[in-house]
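Quick look at the format.
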Amino acid sequence: MGEKVAADTFGPAERRRYRDKLRRCLEALDLLLEEQRFDRPRDLMGLEIELNLADADGLPRMKNDQVLDRIASEDFQSELGRFNLEVNILPHRLNGRVFDQLAEELRTGLGYADRKAREVAAGIVMIGILPTLTHEDLSSANLSADDRFTMLNDRIMAARGEEIELDIEGVERLQHVCDSIAPEAACTSVQLHLQVTPGRFADVWNAAQAMAAVQVALAANSPFVFGRELWRESRIPLFLQAADPRPPEFAAQGVRPRTWFGERWIEGPKDLFEENLRYFPALLPGIAEEDPLETLERGEVPELSEMVLHNGTVYRWNRPVYGVVDSVPHLRVENRVLPAGPTVTDVMANTAFYYGLVRALADEGRPLWSRMPFETAESNFELACRYGIDARLTWPRSGRGAGSGQVPVDRLVLEELLPMAASGLDAWGVEPADRDRYLGVIEARCERRTNGASWQVAAYHRARESGLDREKALAATVRRYGELARAGEPVHSWPPGPWS
């Protein structure tokens, strides 16, 4: 049980108490790391997918409470917007036919959820950003009826002290002022978890950071915001701006954003939790009764509640996660880079590529991050978000002293990274049929240079060329996207849209 402090009474005294508890949490984490108290990983992976609700015309449907009542499953939960759901898949061992098993579970669960959604004239759409969302849809009135979302919104807006200004320039430019964090709800993602040992954590996190650009380039699926064509993965800059508690003058002074790529390679998990304390003030109040150091002295494992809560309000694209299961602590890397969709097969292909490549990179004797400056990884990430599968990334050449050069991401994947991902899946014990099926989807995407974002953009422009106005072209694109996604074939094989 914890002592909860109301959001409007979280003043200077409470903040000092909170930071003191955070420091004690970090001391306890340090002791746990020294004593090697952590659970040994069992090659477990976890998966969460955020979803959209849309009607037959492709427009957002604000009915998640009614849909969740009908689904009546703990696997499905509310998310920030009333047009959002989240599905959580139980952890699986990374071996055998794991991706086929996951695909079957997802198809069954999403199919059931879609049928229940249709009872209130809605349907499930897996997509990074629903193109038909408007700024009227993304208002505080359409935040889900959940106190945690209301409190998060109130704390971020109070920290800013003024409205949020969205300004994203891509193919077109979006400028919009909003009085809540509701635009964050437009960003729906796939989150991948991997349990690791403390000694392995830095290698896995660094590997995940280095490959984040490639993930985004291959899987981009968010080219439209409020009807404007922006970046191929516009979810990234939109989330950064919509969830930013910094007043503009703080941003100009170099205060770090809470949606953060990071600024350095790490040597261990504590580096990240220490950065959270050093750089980011508390947003959500919650001071637990437990003293973590006293808990350790009793030979028990502390929950580190304040550290966990604070960590949940720092939106790293690869986030450290501390948890306690059956009185044993464990660490996970949570990969938050991927957009949702387009199909279950595409999601599984992205998942297989991530787990295979992150394993191969973490196992390398001469790590990629020893040959790539962190600033290059960050620059690659932005380029991948802007240009998707057409991006050119800066990547170390093979051989000692060979330096780095720019390479098209599709060629980089086909010639270098796909074989590495395959070897990584072999190391996990994934069966060759599973490996080849899902990495084959990635290969075909690269060969055809087609992903969800490029399909959406091409479909939209075909609709405009046929004479439809912007609004009708976006709606037609979403309708055709939904039809093809429900059919289940991966996006690289889809016919041009938006017509049947």
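Next, a different chain entirely:
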Amino acid sequence: MIIPYEQLSSDALQGLIEEFITREGTDYGIEEIPLSIKVEQVKNQLKRREVVVVFDETTESVSILSRRDAELLEQDSAT
């Protein structure tokens, strides 16, 4: 289920974005980008609706997915 990011408190959104960014644990870019810049990039993606906040009822967890992946997930759960 897609949850509008605006419904989250700023602390919850910040924590979710930071967890999303650091989930892989490694940055393979040529230049290391500070976490604060990455957080702003994800916030901008949320504002542009490129990525969305998703609540998984089965695992009772929240994550960030691309809009396309979230829509496919919702279609699969509806069938």
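The longest strand covers residues 51-56.

See the schema section for token definitions.
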